[in-house]
Amino acid sequence: MKKKIDKKAITPLMGAFLLVSFAIAVGVIVLNFGRAEVEEQAQCSLKIDLHFIEIGGKQDLCFDGTSLKFTVENGINANLGGLVVNIIGTQKAQKTEVNAALSRAETYVGVVPFDTTVNGQIRQVRIIPKVTLSQTEEICTEQALVAENIPPC
Fold this sequence. Notes:
four-stranded antiparallel sheet, alpha+beta
């Protein structure tokens, strides 16, 4: 008598392949959750040392009635991909992105238009550096330059 062989089971090679695939899928999921948590708590790891230029003992920052004029100097630690200039008025805030790259120890003279009829009088100016770390652009808000009581030009 011949016995019928039931071939419904998977081979050991196929079983090993399924286990490895499952382990890789679980690993990818865990790493993605970890990366999201790190990015959520990320801060700029570099000390950028962006600062206002002082001319005659005063910061070179003023408002001429239609635009904010400022001069900043980058530190020696990192190249900057640009700046974000937030001008907070009494009625409204305005965000302007300046896409001028600043290399190390480079000085930048900026002019940002600001309409006081729409935004109100300037209460505060925040100039925030942008750096590129491992192919991702980071905006370093914790290293922003903050100025209040902006003098006329």
